[in-house]
TrEMBL record:
Organism whose genome encodes this protein: Marinifilum breve
Name of this protein: TolC family protein
Keyword presence, Transport: yes
Stated family: Belongs to the outer membrane factor (OMF) (TC 1.B.17) family.
Keywords attached to this entry: Cell outer membrane, Membrane, Transmembrane, Transmembrane beta strand, Transport
Domain of life: Bacteria
Pfam families reported for this sequence: OEP (PF02321)
Localization: Cell outer membrane
Length: 451
């Protein structure tokens, strides 16, 4: 009785462990993998940090047009300040004769033992030659470039994740095919052994079948190892532990039917983050040229201060607060041709940005067309492999029936099985290639999103 209870307990324990292991496996969709990769990837985090920095720079640029307020104070102690001594003397009359009136001597401080000042001031730029407006425009362009850099970094990451994801799915499909092949060859081996025992076939036929079965078992080991390595690579990319147990939701690759209708469109160029970056860079060079001009225009700044100081030559009595306000004007006059040289530098920067934009547009146009060609080639290849797979299925079915009827040899069935397995592998690889080329196409046109 105790043995029965122990066995039941062991069975229940094993069942619970199996359920726990299944639940412990993380089931991931393609969207899950992309989201996890975005949250983990250091390059994306760096690009997002640059974006936040550019947003802060834009805010600072806008606030530079507002008045600024500053509080300042100082204190100085002099142990033995200098004094001016005026000796006494007799006051003269109009005709220069002694008057008999004596003026006593006196002394006055040329410095104070305690000197201090405290002020609160306001500065407001009135006209800076357009410098503040142009600086604001540069900060806005910098923010736009940071956003484009985030999109570029994300798109490169998304392509890599899709490639690794569909690689795992294709290996899972190939593993299923090899397992079916092992089941088929096991049944064939059993049938051939029965025929050998009855003397219908030779031992050589048994050995041939056994060799093919062993090859399939070896192939299963290889594809299983490749599958584990592919999962490790995907885990690393999405931020999981490299040995984390994951399960891919997709068990088979489905190909959408609209891909064959894809054509080149000039508007796709404008969607690429690289083109947006270069356009903004070109615009930034043009704004910097205007910035140079603004530096050599008159600049007017207003100010106001509320001051308390000792000594205070502007106050009627000690410790009295005084107020002053004014406007300052600065006009650049002569800087040894500095403006002209800076304008030459800006002109060269604009030309360089225009050339980079033209070159990149040509290269991206070529990239888009290549992506379309490769996608369509992979679709044609998929169609061919689909036909080959259909023929291999029919051939295997035919040879299996012929072998059972005794009108075919084991070798013919084994050849049919090899063709069936090879056709399946080609078909699965073709589907994975289509999905990878599809992702590269959408990246090429700047439309590779998370969904």
């Amino acid at each position: 009785m105790n043995n029965i209870i122990l066995k039941i307990s062991m069975v229940l324990l094993l069942g619970l462990l199996t359920i726990f292991k299944i639940n412990a496996q993380e089931v991931l969709t393609l969207q899950d993998c992309k989201q996890k990769a975005l949250e983990h990837n250091q390059s994306v985090k760096t690009a997002l940090s640059d974006l936040k920095s550019s947003e802060a720079a834009l805010t600072l640029s806008k606030r530079s047009m507002l008045p600024t307020f500053d509080l300042s104070s100082s204190y100085t102690y002099l142990k033995d300040p200098n004094k001016m001594v005026v000796p006494g003397y007799e006051l003269p009359t109009v005709d220069g004769k002694p008057s008999g009136v004596y003026s006593p001597g006196s002394s006055s401080n040329l410095a104070y033992n305690n000197s201090y000042s405290a002020s609160i001031g306001m500065n407001l730029p009135i006209y800076m030659g357009g410098k503040l407006r142009h600086a604001n425009k540069l900060s806005s362009l910098g923010k736009a470039m940071a956003e484009d850099n985030v999109d570029l970094t994300k798109s490169e990451l998304m392509v890599d994740v899709e490639t690794k994801y569909w690689g795992v799915v294709s290996l899972q499909e190939q593993k299923d095919v090899v397992q079916k092949s092992i089941v088929l060859l096991t049944d064939v081996l059993k049938e051939v052994r029965n025929r050998y025992e009855t003397g219908i076939v030779t031992k050589n036929e048994v050995l041939k079948t056994q060799v093919e079965l062993n090859n399939s078992k070896l192939a299963l080991i290889e594809v299983s190892n490749n599958l584990e390595l592919a999962k490790m690579s995907l885990n690393q990319r999405i931020g999981n532990g490299i040995l984390s147990s994951i399960q891919i939701q997709d068990s088979i690759i489905n190909i959408p039917g609209h891909l064959s209708a894809i054509t080149f469109n000039e508007t796709h160029l404008g969607n690429r983050p690289e083109i947006k970056l270069l356009n903004n860079q070109l615009e930034m060079s043009r704004v910097e040229k205007k910035m140079v001009n603004s530096e050599y225009l008159p600049q007017i700044v207003s100010y106001a201060n509320y001051v308390s100081q000792n000594p205070n030559r502007y106050a009627k009595q000690e410790n009295e607060f005084t107020f002053n306000a004014g406007v300052s004007l600065s006009i650049p006059v002569f800087h040894w041709g500095e403006k002209k040289l800076k304008k030459v530098q800006n002109k060269m920067a604009i030309q360089k940005a225009e050339l980079e934009l033209d070159e990149s547009s040509e290269m991206i146009t070529l990239e888009i067309r290549q992506a379309i060609f490769r996608l369509k080639e992979s679709l044609v290849k998929l169609d061919f492999t689909s036909t080959s797979l259909e023929q291999a299925n029919e051939n295997l079915k035919l040879e299996s029936n012929r072998l059972m009827e005794g009108v075919s040899t084991t070798r013919e069935l084994l050849d049919a099985q090899l063709q069936w397995q090879s056709s399946h592998a080609d078909y699965i690889n073709a589907k994975a290639e289509v999905k990878t080329n599809e992702a590269k196409y959408y990246k090429a046109i700047g439309d590779l999103r998370l969904q």
